[in-house]
TrEMBL record:
This is Ig-like domain-containing protein. The keyword Signal applies. It comes from the Bacteria. Residues 1-19 form the signal peptide. Keywords: Signal.
Length: 131
């Protein structure tokens, strides 16, 4: 995928994620009181951009951050966000990108079952999107 296409994809996904109040287009949908885990990984020490909408419908976005989580070996570090859906369920999504390229990964688990996964290890601009 060209750099322009990747940038356009990130913009569209970011706008979708930031529209948390109206749901995340193409997002993982949960049922009442489901437990969820959103996992994001990158190369250890890499500056990445992350954006995620959790099972409460809250969107969090951070730019140019280094993940401070559990090293998983191979020079990668992961963080996870756990939550529980409300009475009516919800939708959630995760996006992680590295403008300099390198390893990025995301996964979403609902009730312990992996329902979405994405990874990229491009040498220039890498992006993983779980919806």
């Amino acid at each position: 995928m060209s750099v322009c296409a990747r940038v356009a994809s990130v913009f569209v996904l970011s706008v979708s994620l930031l529209a948390g109040g109206v749901g995340v287009a193409g997002a993982v949908v949960t049922d009442s009181y489901d437990t969820t885990r959103q996992v994001m990984c990158s190369a250890t020490g890499a500056a990445v951009d992350v954006s995620y909408t959790n099972a409460y419908g809250n969107t969090t976005s951070r730019e140019n951050v280094s993940l401070r989580g559990r090293p998983i070996g191979g020079g990668h570090t992961c963080i996870s966000v756990d939550s529980r859906s409300g009475e009516y369920g919800d939708s959630l999504g995760t996006l992680i990108s590295d403008e300099s390229g390198g390893y990025v990964y995301c996964a979403i688990y609902v009730n312990g079952v992996k329902v979405s996964e994405s990874e990229d290890d491009s040498s220039y601009y890498s992006m993983a999107s779980c919806m």
